[in-house]
Amino acid sequence: MRGLSLLAFRSLASRRLRALLTTAAVCLGVVAIMGSLSAIGAIRASLERAAADAAGRADLEVRALAEQGFPLAVVEQVRGLEGVRLVAPVLEKRTFLRGEGLQGFVHLVGVDAAAEAEVHSLALRAGRWPGPGAAEVALLDAWAAGHDIRLGTTVDLITREGFQSFEVVGLVSEAGLARRSFGRVVFVSLQTAQQAFGLGGRITHLALQLERPAEREQVARQLATLLPGGFSALQPEEVGRELRAAAEQLALGLIVFGATALFVGAFLIGNTIAMTVAEQRRQIGLLRAAGVTRGQVLVVVLLQAAVVGAAGSALGVLGGVALAYGLVAWLVSWERLATVEVPLEPQAAALSFLVGVGATVLSALLPAWQATTIAPVEALRHAEPQPTRVSAWSHWLGAGGLVVAGGAALAWPLGEDAAGPARILGVVLWLSAAGLAALGLVGPLSRLCALPFRWLLGPEARLAELNLRRAEQRAGLTVVGFTASLALMVALAGLGSSAATAGQERAARIFPGELLVVSPVPQPVQLADEVRATPGVGHLTLLRPLSVAWGPVWLDAMAVEPADYAAPLAAMLAEGEPAETLARLQAGRAVLVPLRLAQARGLKPGDRMPLQTPDGPVEFQVAGLLAYSFPSSDNLGAVVLSRQDVARSFGLDSFTLLAVTPAPGTSAEALAEPLGQVAERFGMEVVSVGAIRAAIGSGVGQLLALFGSLIAVGIVVAGLGIVNTMMMNVAERQREIGVLRALGLTRWQVQVMVLAEAAMMGLIGGLLGVVSGLGLSRLLLELARSPDFDPQPVWPLGPAALSLLASVAVAMLSALPPARAAARVHVSRAVFTE
Amino acid sequence: MLATILHAEGLVKRFPVRDGYVQALAGVDLVVRRGEFVAIMGSSGSGKSTLLHLLGGLERPSAGRVLLDGMDLGRLSDRELTLLRRRKIGFVFQFFNLIPTLTAHENIILPLLIDGKRPAEQARMLELLVRLLRLEGVLDHRPDQLSGGEQQRVAIARALLTQPDVIMADEPTGNLDHASGMELLEHLWSSCAHLGRTIVMVTHEAKAAIFADRVVLLQDGLVIDQVPLGRDKPRDNARPLIARLQELGL
Lengths: 834, 250
Prior knowledge:
The complex is a heterodimer.
Chain A: H1 2-14, H2 16-55, E1 60-64, E2 70-71, H3 73-79, E3 84-99, E4 102-111, H4 113-120, E5 124-127, E6 136-140, H5 141-146, E7 154-159, E8 162-172, H6 176-180, E9 185-189, H7 190-196, E10 202-203, E11 205-210, H8 216-226, E12 231-234, H9 236-239, H10 241-258, H11 260-279, H12 281-289, H13 294-333, H14 346-372, H15 376-381, H16 392-411, H17 420-457, H18 459-470, H19 472-510, E13 515-524, H20 526-532, E14 537-550, E15 553-560, H21 566-572, H22 578-587, E16 590-594, H23 595-601, E17 608-613, E18 616-626, E19 639-642, H24 643-650, E20 654-662, H25 668-681, E21 685-688, H26 689-732, H27 734-742, H28 747-784, H29 797-814, H30 816-823, H31 827-832
Parallel strand pairs in A: 4-9, 6-8, 15-19, 16-18
Antiparallel strand pairs in A: 1-11, 1-12, 2-10, 3-4, 3-7, 3-11, 5-8, 6-9, 7-8, 13-20, 13-21, 14-15, 14-20, 16-19, 17-18
Helix pairs in contact in A: 1-13, 2-10, 2-11, 2-13, 2-14, 2-26, 10-26, 11-14, 11-19, 11-26, 13-14, 16-17, 17-18, 17-19, 17-28, 18-28, 19-26, 19-28, 19-29, 26-29, 26-30, 28-29, 28-30
Chain B: E1 4-17, E2 20-33, E3 37-42, H1 48-55, E4 63-68, E5 71-72, H2 78-88, E6 89-92, H3 104-108, H4 110-114, H5 123-132, H6 148-161, E7 166-170, H7 178-193, E8 198-202, H8 206-209, E9 214-219, E10 222-228, H9 238-248
Parallel strand pairs in B: 3-8, 3-9, 6-7, 7-8
Antiparallel strand pairs in B: 1-2, 1-4, 4-5, 9-10
Helix pairs in contact in B: 6-7
């Protein structure tokens, strides 16, 4: 065994550049995996902490059903209940903040600082808590630092009196509420919140600590007799459920795209080991002649792979932690996370290391097995390295790959039943099929892909094409890297474009009109008439988001004017006649339920839904199901009620959104300015639906950039594959290059020849990648399709063309070192020595 | 008197080694006239291949100069030297050195392709060479489908197609059997005698050298003698050449 180890190490040492390139490929693959796993760990840890912080040490969270909340006097009564140890009253509101170079909606939290610190782990990092009734605020320290806000800075908040200035007097450490709102939290004293928002002595929820947590039920029963207008009690463990669910999709994406680099690296490793085996035919033959068994040959080859795999994986684990910090910092900069802490998990490190070593050894299995089949006599006869030729079966293999991909596309179970692991399997199957196709189709495709180069370059391209075809298997294994990476890149672009387009179209449909007037607080309906009187306003409809309690479940709801929603409803309805459904909604005591919510809660048209109102439970009938609806915090979509119902049953005759359609002959751009002036008078803001569409596109774009960066690591690994293959090709073809130089091929022409060969590989890999990527994007779209996500496929032709160019460019850049080496070949030494 | 096509003056070539350098040529003077067939002979390590590389512009001398048609090769840039090799020099190698991915026909026209010219420009010459070298039946074969003799005939056709000023042949019969070797030498002799080509051939075989007009004898990097031979009947040259070689102890 010791002797065999020595052989393996000597073999690696004698091919340092190749060993280095392979180690780099493994390293990059493991970097991506470790980075993804650590980033997922960070995201989960962040959300778990957010959930835990939100629940804090409260045993019961009690929310008011009515918009006006509970009267303050209730707090003292609840404190007096048997079994209640502590009561922390909170007033929560969304409002608008304006500071230097900063504006946007924030989550305003009015707290009793002493009680809140007991329940929700709030810790003051600097300054002090806002004084009772004072125009003072405390902010989350990380968010404030990110926006250059310090103690003493003044910010403006919209209150019932319009914009009012508040001084920043405290900086608070991250807390649950802060995390849930991505850091945009403004703490004020309870009294200030009550005065500023006209809620008098009222509060929106209470956090309770009990003497004995097991007595929740008894305390809740006592509360029922005490609290007017109804309430909903939430147990702490339910708080984080939604947050965790939201993180799973992101984690799935990171895992799939993080594994790309190692998938690509596996082909590079296999190719490298195959080349080494080809070079060592003579040595292996000698060993076999000297009595080394096939098993021992296998061990020598696999040992080389394992050493490279272990070195690359160890480096990759370290690099992965650094990548995770980068990914998490990225997410923080998009305000999708509120923390940069990356947990160093030994399990993730061990898993990444094992996956790296395992993938390396697995990739080396086939060439190692080929090494065991070398007959001693044959090896001694053919001393020179023989590039492996691809036989006819490989073309069948390629065709088989295409059939498998096509079959997978047609036969895969689509729709909601396709769970996360099934999607991963679908991607892996598809990429494997594309890889097989790349291996088998290199020969035929090289003829096609050489055409533009021959037209552009002439004889150098012809020589490059012939060189490419002489070692098809090597070329095939090299182009697979590009194929797999680009397929994912194009698929991602396709999926993203389809999702963004669908989201944008939906945004345009659910908000009739081109402009939205947004109010941070509910406004009386009479105010809508003032806005309607603005010159250039054609039509205006009122919208009122609210929360409704259905038994113990809180649902997001939207109150709409049914008459104004005839056209949007026709597009939003999952089934049924729009006119009939609209009539039922208009008749009252009716609700439209999003299909996903209906499926999750077992609702169907005609069912009764008792909703809690300030006057007790009122039965609403499910008038219809919506394929999609307004966004909601549980991602199931908001239920839709008529404005009249909401005014009658919930006492909420107000609006927070106005959807405005410009009058004929007036453009949205022209109307925006006068409308903005009117809105500002009432503390409201004008947003164009176009801006919302752009924000959706930008959000999707950010996510694509995150996943795309992981795939880019795969493209870099594919580039390393080109370096490796072309270095080997140049080394094997020294004599030919010397002959060509002697016959008059200039150094430049030699470089062009090598670069053209690499470019053809890039083009072949790119073409296959783009074609399979377009198919994969369709497959992923079908896998993700559901009743409320039913987009039209968008073919990402622009990104596909860019990917193709990038593939050729990366291949050529990677081939620069081998091209230079080829140009430096010493003519007489190469040609005149045997 | 024929014009000088190739002129070497005081050629010195040293190769660096770990402890200093090895001197392959110690000051060679040589004149080759247009249309002449010159053979360079010498024992192993005498510097004959190095001399051929310097004359063919594949290496640069450490001292001295090579003039090809009056042009000092040492003053040319790498690109100029490459273009000169492409247009004025043809090479025939011992190991044939055909490009394995190209057919015999493509190998022959390779110098034209490299130069960006259309094969049609030399169609008559190609036809003549194919006929003279009896390559009609193997033009679409790849090198691994050809015998050694066929491969070397293809290499000669490749060297002659562009009608270069000089053909440099390095042990062209070294890897051929006797019959193929003789046939090849007759082709070279014929191209010199009938097509007016200038040939410089390195060989260690007297039976090959007898086809030349003159044999340059090298020892320890120096020209020790030049033996003129008759052109009409190469076989008649054997006796005087061998006698001279024996006199010099080669």
